[in-house]
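ARCHIVE CARD
SHELF: 3
SLOT: left
DATA:
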Amino acid sequence: MTVDPAFLALPLRALADAALQSARDAGARHADVRVERNRNQNVSLRDAELENLSDDVTLGLAVRVIVDGTWGFASSADVTTDEARRLAREAVDVARTARPLNSQPIELADEPVHDDVTWVSDYDIDPFSVPTAEKVALFTDWSRTLLAHDEVDHVDVTLQQAMECKFYADTAGTMTTQQRIRLLPQVTGTRLDPGGGFETMRTLAAPVGRGWEYLTTGHPDSYDWASELAQLPANLVEKAKASSVEPGRYDLVIDPSNLWLTIHESIGHATELDRALGYEAAYAGTSFATLDQLGSLRYGTELMHVTGDRHTPHGLSTVGFDDEGVAAQEWDIVRDGVLVGYQLDRRMAKQNGFGRSNGCAFADGPHRVPVQRMPNVSLQPVADGPTTEQLIAGVEKGIYVVGDKSWSIDMQRYNFQFTGQRFYEIRAGRLVGQLRDLAYQAVTTEFWGSMEAVGGPSSYVLGGAFNCGKAQPSQTAAVSHGCPAALFRGVNILNTQREAGR
């Protein structure tokens, strides 16, 4: 795949030359420029009828500078060389105005120069090349098939699609051009209870850095939509008629379709260095995993190996280069159960003695300042680890957790509770049916400290989210989390209905 010719037709080099030279002339020690075009198309159906269709494009130019150790930033939707020069001067003015308020001069970690490089994410079929009518027809067929079941009262189908084109250049000489594609399809069935309640069941397909092939029957990279949609009505009915869980301590086998979100909240956000240092507190606060504990904090058992990376194939946070011109990398965050690494941008790396950034700067659009954002954060499988079935077989009394739903975590990423799409009771190593009204509750280090077994590569799945929020003003980023199934001993289980006083 190549970068969209319409984006390449913009005067990218001329814009960079104009902005960077104007910034130098105005006294900037460092300057970088981004030209971004982001396209987002959303399709939703309710009961086989088109409910919403939106197709938005954002195009803009941003200039960021360092003057007298202080950041300056300016952006515009006017993508012209004259505007690029004006933005550079405005960014310098902003930095000089803010200088009296800055108590910590900005320094950036060194990064090799990456001169005129192009990177495109791995996909086969551009989803924006597929006619909207074809998408609606597919989702209408799915919806009608599900609605044909007597026990399915409503069906919702949603599809989010994104194409991100980004050009970056800086005064050191780096120049990168990138394009990313991502998809998030979801199908949800609802069953109404005659007594006035309801129950829902959603597909488990993860958001991916793939193209339309993810939804194309017969393509080798397609998800198995036929099987999951065929099973959805029965799963929904079983859940609706299931017994309410008896609260207490249970052994849990957690499927990757659920565990990815626990990784995201209790490890991903907790190991953002700006959050650990107290610089960031938006969206659930700071972090218990403070910098003074690096190399000593016992995060979990010795089986716990968590990595950060920006280059996992089809990952939502996968890039060639971040928004500071830093090449994609992979590194350890937790090794042998001990905290050994953080997520860094160039300022955090330099300020805290890490030497080099690991490429975690990202802005969600041309009018936003890059901030430290999450890479793909993943729990690694054990090379000869058990299958999911073998993990279940080793449990006398427990619960198998499948699919994500709601979550809650405290302001230091320490105390949490999570629910799921389906919960299966385990007795003597066998699944004996679904339970309902269930959430698992734990303290982060106690939870990961209870992990007794980690699955092998056969159970590894890449999950993730389109909508990770951070910063003020709010920014949204897509991120993936891979993991195998894993076994946790003696986890506290709540009955959510009783907790709600019902």
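SLOT: right
DATA:
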Amino acid sequence: MMSFLRMVSSHALASLAEPSCAACEASVPVETVFCGPCARTLVPRFDSPRWKPTHTEVAAFDYGGALRDAIVRFKYQRRDDLARPLAALLARCGPRVSALRPDLVVPVPSHPTKLALRTFDPAALLARAFAATIGARSVPDALDKVRVTRAQAGLDREARLVNLEGAYLCPRGQASRFASARVVLVDDVRTTGATLLACHEALERVGAKVVAHAVLAIAPE
């Protein structure tokens, strides 16, 4: 209850405060995510979606500059008020994903330990806003992260895949919710794609059809 009240309070305060840049706090016009200097550091991804044999990958930007700073603040400085402006950036992927006719939007989940420290789930907030953009239903409890894993930073793709084996599961007794559903997986940043792949496989084990991975930014491997 306290985390919910905190989230409501932070959004209420954010709505009353003067709009500020998501990266550096400089004043900006209403409905503007970044100030001019920060916006110039963004690298939009104008390339076509990457078509995989099993799904489509879409991303809004490259990871770096002001976007990296905003994501770090969002995830590690308990800035859940940044969910709305960052979700507006992710919405750039909306038309490409809508064309795939998804039913459900599922966030990559955090482990309960990390969730308790943050008091909110960054990917779940992004997924909820993105689902509204594409007219699908957000399912924040579709997956559980059932064990703590090593930090992925510094691991190559193969080591990341091994690190995540069995880490994500669909809650027991809920598989029928996803049978034949067309699902979009959402996360903030993709590096090697190992985390998204682990979640993808967990959903497919219960009969879901994962049609796309949508991320705010792609980081260099």
